[in-house]
Amino acid sequence: MMSFEPTTRRIGSGAAKLSVAPLEDTSTFKNRAYSALKEVIVSLNIYDQPHEVRLDERQLAQSLGVSRTPVREAMAQLEREGFVHSVPRRGIYVVRKTKREVIEMIQVWAALESLAARLITLHASNEEIAMLRQMFATFEDGAPHAKLDEYSEVNIQFHQAIIAMGGNGILENLAENLFTHMRMIRRKTIGEENRADRSIQDHLAIIQALEARQTDAAEVLVRNHALGLAEHVSRYADYLE
Questions:
Q1: Which residues of the chain have pLDDT under 50?
Q2: What pLDDT does 3 receive?
Q3: Does residue 197 contact residue 209 with C-beta atoms inside 8 Å?
Q4: Is 122 exposed, middle or buried (0-12, 13-18, 19+ CB in 10 A)?
Q5: pTM of the predicted model, to two decimals?
Q6: CA 230, CA 224: separation in Å to the nearest integer?
Q7: Partner of 29 for a Cys bridge, out of 70, 99, 114, 126, CB 3.0 to 4.6 A?
Q8: pLDDT value of residue 153
Q9: pLDDT the model gives residue 168
Q10: How far apart are CA 67 and CA 155, in angstroms?
Q11: CB-CB neighbours of 123 under 10 Å
Q12: What is the pLDDT of residue 28?
């Protein structure tokens, strides 16, 4: 996977100047431009930005080492997926979801992930479930907020693993694009109102229910954990207004 260090330094036109690496393989410009731009957008921490982030097609094409056509095609796909939106005569902007939209996404995620948890108790191996516990081995004896950046990534990996371990390809496909939006808001909220400490406790309870093959309990715990994020957003995420 390519590595990026995104920045939102303003350039003369008012657009954000993003640092992206040139594409070396020229065989699939559109797909590679799409993957590169999506990764950068997700890494922007958009909800920490004080202003709208505008993207400059010309600068992005130059950074990637391609013409503007594959960048334009990639932007069109990203717009269909809800990551950017174009404003006539103004340009292309990274989408910031409203509070209502974020809550609705979390509610849908709660339904998908809780179903995956039910499937895990019925079909996943003990070894697969044990991997979930291993994710949190470094946090069980200490406060996760002491290693917040590290915990934030493990938190995201945990939820991705729950979906994948459910073993339902259609469910995984439905969740993929939704989770990309979700990870941006998870990264923002994990450090708020002691959510990291409560999150680790929720995760360990979920793992215990999965290990015991407690199907109904696992489903409820996963759903309530997700809906707890929705409640947090509703109460505290004024920056989404």
A1: 1-5
A2: 45
A3: no
A4: exposed
A5: 0.79
A6: 10
A7: 70
A8: 85
A9: 97
A10: 37
A11: 12
A12: 79
